[in-house]
Each structure stands twice: as structure tokens, then as C-alpha cells.
Write a structure and sequence with these properties.
Blueprint lengths: L21 H4 L1 H22 L3 E2 L27 E2 L6 H18 L16 H40 L19 H21 L13 H11 L10 H43 L1
Antiparallel strand pairs: 1-2
Helix pairs in contact: 2-3, 4-5, 5-6
Length: 280
């Protein structure tokens, strides 16, 4: 019941117990690439040391094919020539590169470089391209976090707590696992981008009070965390509220002083006007 070990399933079909990896889907491509590599090596070796076309008894001794060797032929005999098969190792290398790219794409390597095939892109286009790729990768990452990473972290904390190596947190604190890896931050940053886009769209309607629907403080703090900024640099909520209350108190005092000064001037002006009327 303590789950001594965990196994994460990369992907799985509906009602499937055992998971599968990209290698399962692309195993034929991987085998083909291995065969192509073997053929390429044999072909390159043959081009470096090809078979020779030699007429019978036209060479003195054994034909030498090593680097810097000399081949001695009899007078009037045809010169030995290498036998060309008509294949091209350069073309084979190009086909191998294409096959490698197919396998890389199958393992989602292309998702980690939004500019792999295009360099003349604006920052907005890069963000849009990255978000599109993250949508494809999000279910896989979420499944791994749920089935593998979360249980491992929770079990590790339980073992540390059982060994009296961890101070018990207060009962009113809800402990949650927050991932700070590049992929996790990229996925979280999608929410931040959605907040920014929504606020920008709603900006013209701010006079109508539409921003009252949003918790701006929580949105700002979430955006800070999702961007990967240090959480310890965030001011605690209690301290933030205390600073706001202090500023409001000072502002209220300043407003009251300004109102008092304005009222005092008005009273003096009225008193002066009455005195002037009596003198007249």
C-alpha cells in the first residue's frame, strides 16, 4: 500500500494497462536506420578501398591497394581500374539524415526548439509556435507528473517525515508540488500569456468595471512564479496588505489635512467678507 516503486507511462491507449513509449511506435523506423547505417559504413569502406578490375597476368605480383602503394604492370598491359558500383555515399548520408529527423520528431525533439526550421520570426510568432507545441506535449507531461513525479516526491517526503527529519508543517497549510523545470515553466507560462492577452482585450472596457471580475493580486503573483522568478522575492500577503493599509492611512490623513486647510481658508474668506461688510 506504500507503493515502494513507481513506473510512469509515457502514453497509453484507452483501457490499456501497460503504457508505451515513442520507441514502440517508431521501432520499425529505428531498425531501418540501423540497417541504413550499416549499409552506409559498408559503402564508404568500399569507396575507400574498391575492388579492382585487373586483366589476368597484367600485374607483377599482388595488386597493392594501400595508401602510397605502387602497382607494377607489365608492358602493354591495361591499367587496373576500380570497379564502380554506381552508388553514392553522399546520397545515402542525406537519406540517413532524413530518417534520423523522423525519429527525432517521433521523440518530440522538435518541440524543444521553436526556431529549428525558421529564424526570421517575430517574438509573437515564436510564442505562438511554442504554445502550439506545448499543447501537444502537455498531456504527456501531465501524465508523467501525475503517475510518476508526484507520487515519488510525496513518498520521499513521507519517508523523511517518518524518520523525524522534517518539521511538521502547520495544519492550516496546504502543501502542493510545484515544478520549476523548463517544460513545467513553459506550460505554466501559457496561463500567464492567457492572462496578459485577456487583460489587453478587456483594457478598453476598464471604465465599465470589468476588471472587478479578476483577482489582480493573484494574477500578478502567479505570473511571477510562472515566469520562473524566485518565489522568495515575493512579499508575503500579510506584509503587502499592511503596507497598503499604511499608505491608505497616510493618504487619508493627507486628504483630511487638505480638506481642513481648504475649509479653514473658506472660513477665513467668509469672516473677512463679513468684516468688510460691517466696515462699509
Amino acid at each position: 500500500e506504500l507503493n515502494p516503486y513507481f513506473i510512469g507511462r509515457f502514453t497509453k491507449a484507452p483501457n490499456e494497462l501497460m503504457g508505451r513509449s515513442p520507441a514502440t511506435e517508431y521501432l520499425p523506423e529505428i531498425k531501418m536506420l540501423n540497417k541504413m547505417r550499416k549499409t552506409f559504413i559498408e559503402q564508404a569502406e568500399y569507396e575507400a578501398n574498391p575492388a579492382m578490375l585487373i586483366e589476368d597476368d597484367c600485374v607483377i605480383g599482388q595488386p597493392a591497394t594501400g595508401a602510397g602503394d605502387n602497382i607494377y604492370i607489365r608492358p602493354g598491359a591495361p591499367i587496373p581500374t576500380p570497379w564502380k558500383k554506381g552508388t553514392s555515399s553522399a546520397l545515402t548520408a542525406e537519406v540517413i539524415a532524413d530518417q534520423r529527423q523522423i525519429i527525432r520528431d517521433g521523440f518530440f525533439n522538435d518541440l524543444f526548439d521553436a526556431l529549428a526550421d525558421r529564424r526570421n520570426m517575430t517574438a509573437t510568432e515564436v510564442d505562438s509556435r511554442r504554445e502550439t507545441k506545448m499543447v501537444l506535449l502537455a498531456p504527456i507531461i501531465s501524465a508523467l507528473q501525475k503517475e510518476l513525479f508526484d507520487p515519488i516526491i510525496t513518498r520521499t517526503l513521507d519517508l523523511i517525515a517518518d524518520g523525524k527529519k522534517l518539521i511538521s508543517p502547520p495544519q492550516d497549510i496546504d502543501v502542493d508540488v510545484v515544478y520549476q523545470g523548463r517544460l513545467a515553466l513553459a506550460m505554466s507560462n501559457m496561463q500567464t500569456n492567457a492572462i496578459e492577452i485577456t487583460l489587453a482585450k478587456m483594457a478598453p472596457y476598464e471604465p465599465l468595471g470589468v476588471f472587478d471580475n479578476y483577482d489582480m493580486d493573484k494574477s500578478a503573483r502567479d505570473a511571477w512564479i510562472n515566469a520562473g522568478a524566485p518565489a522568495e522575492n515575493l512579499v508575503p500577503v500579510d506584509l503587502r496588505d499592511a503596507r497598503r493599509a499604511e499608505r491608505k492611512q497616510k493618504q487619508d490623513a493627507a486628504d483630511a489635512a487638505e480638506i481642513g486647510e481648504t475649509a479653514s481658508k473658506a472660513i477665513r474668506n467668509v469672516s473677512g467678507a463679513e468684516e468688510q461688510a460691517l466696515l462699509e
